[in-house]
Amino acid sequence: MKKTIALLPGDGIGKEVVDVTVDILKAIAEHFHHQFQFNYGLIGGDAIDQKGNPLPEETIAICKDSDAIILGAVGGPKWDQNPMELRPERGLLGLRKELDLFANLRPIKTFESLLDSSPLKKEYVDGVDFVIVRELTGGLYFGKPSERIVHEGDDAVVDTLLYKRYEIERILVSAFEIASKRRKHVTSVDKANVLESSRVWREVAEEVAARYPDVTLEHMLVDNAAMQLIRSPKQFDVIVTENMFGDILSDEASMITGSLGMLSSASLSSSGLHLFEPVHGSAPDIAGKNIANPIATILSAAMMLRQSFGLEEEAKAIEKAVDNVLNAGNRTADLAEDGKAVSTKQIGEEIKNAL
Amino acid sequence: MKKTIALLPGDGIGKEVVDVTVDILKAIAEHFHHQFQFNYGLIGGDAIDQKGNPLPEETIAICKDSDAIILGAVGGPKWDQNPMELRPERGLLGLRKELDLFANLRPIKTFESLLDSSPLKKEYVDGVDFVIVRELTGGLYFGKPSERIVHEGDDAVVDTLLYKRYEIERILVSAFEIASKRRKHVTSVDKANVLESSRVWREVAEEVAARYPDVTLEHMLVDNAAMQLIRSPKQFDVIVTENMFGDILSDEASMITGSLGMLSSASLSSSGLHLFEPVHGSAPDIAGKNIANPIATILSAAMMLRQSFGLEEEAKAIEKAVDNVLNAGNRTADLAEDGKAVSTKQIGEEIKNAL
Ligand SMILES: CC(C)[C@H](C(=O)O)[C@@H](O)C(=O)O
Ligand SMILES: CC(C)[C@H](C(=O)O)[C@@H](O)C(=O)O
For this protein, what reaction is catalysed (chains A, B) (predicted)? Predict the structure, then answer.
């Protein structure tokens, strides 16, 4: 198989974790006789520094000419005081909108070998296995007006939570599709006792649910969901929610396993061009030190192989190699006891060898 | 001291927990020679059933004629299918707006005797002691438009996140005032990398911080805050945030201690007429069974004595009685091992005796 992969390392530890991941993908290509071509693009702070734009036109072109995209991370204190248009996050938000990456998928699954890393007690996290499906191109993130105004004679500011009905429908369809291949339970999270958008969301969820008679739909208020994620995370199979709620809940959920450095994500578009990235950010404090955990990015690459290229066997090979390396006791600094950590490159080598 | 207290028991377990609390307040009045007059009002589902309105005019009048308000809880499945204006929550939201209860305070503090109840490991929760200050009368909860529209030719729906600058300022002032009497650290939570309202929030926070040179201000993005609450809850002293973020984060935070039935809250107005209520809801599944935990409401009454009436000694007496009763091993069903629970009324009696 011949595939073109856009690589957007971005900022901070982004470069290091993408480098290691490319090594793994090269090993996979060799072993399984595929041809992967890698095209690098600039995004985030790096792109601001080099091109004065967090999302240069070339980067969009590189992505559009590719079969899938792997992103490292964007952001860092260096650009925090910049005006909005010149901030790294704008690159990521722009890419989501430009490529219509409307469905963000975050699997939350405990690794047997890392059970003790969680802030939660073992009995709460052992066996957790769910996916958060977050809407990614609508809601408060993109609604207009988003500006300072005078309201009833007073200085005020407004943001807009806007959804088209079809945007709500397609994300719910994604969630039901995923659930139908899993344990067949969708928890739709909203704030229907306050928001009109949530009441439409609930209606559309019911409509979509009627098309999936074997999948159970449960509605849950967002405040309760924030509690339930801690109180009994095992109850969830697929959680689906709008953009801002999803931002908050998926980061909360990423703490359940206690191993943020292990969590991968996919952002899917209807065109078939998807983006894969680790859940963790650019971690500027540890950038360039060869201590970051590259596994989240490596597992994101496995998601890509499966989801974008249909390469199930190859994806499994990576996931199994990661498991083996962890079971053998290898840990990067984020998960290791003091003085026992292996480096970013070392753990990459171990995984490559385990393939 | 002579005070009038409005009692709004509301729905579900609301009545039971308010009943027990009134007993305690009567004991306090007797012991410390105060006169408390109690005026009952209808709210929520109960008010819908009896008056066809979740917030009858009489209830507002009763509150306005009182020196403080104690609320039980509102809501239940019975009214879930009602149209919006006839839902129990409308009573609560209406009361907040009507009385301008703009500052919701939720102390999150672990009880030594209940450390083991938390889903989090002991070392994460032992010593947790912070307050969430949530803006309660603005943002997405009350902004207009909140309605179905046609947008660019498509069916759509919109909600509005609106804040006047003075609303942002006064809640930040509340937070800094509270912090200046505590460990002098304010964490202001926003989503400034996406929302214009958050950028104004951040500006105002800086302005207010300049007036409190001995209080440290930290900005934190809401997604990160959702993580940090689990990862290291001890870092917080005072968290301040807007209405919807506060709704989500305060419910998440209520899981840290593992004892929702113990958590009290205050909603403060600028007029001096404040409302006190337990954090837990109406729990319709256990209503009328004499098994609910009344301590959250009892501790809310203690907050009232301190905050509204300046009765520090009386507030402490209640808090101490609660501590003693817990230390003696008394637990309601939510916290007890199987078969060892005491009833709502029993634990109320124990606390009264311990006063
Ligand atoms: C960087 C930021 C704009 C972004 C978001 O809020 O979507 C991030 O938090 C994420 O979840 O990918
Ligand atoms: C009942 C509901 C409208 C309310 C809110 O969202 O404010 C509740 O969740 C709360 O936190 O008091």
Answer: (2R,3S)-3-isopropylmalate + NAD(+) = 4-methyl-2-oxopentanoate + CO2 + NADH
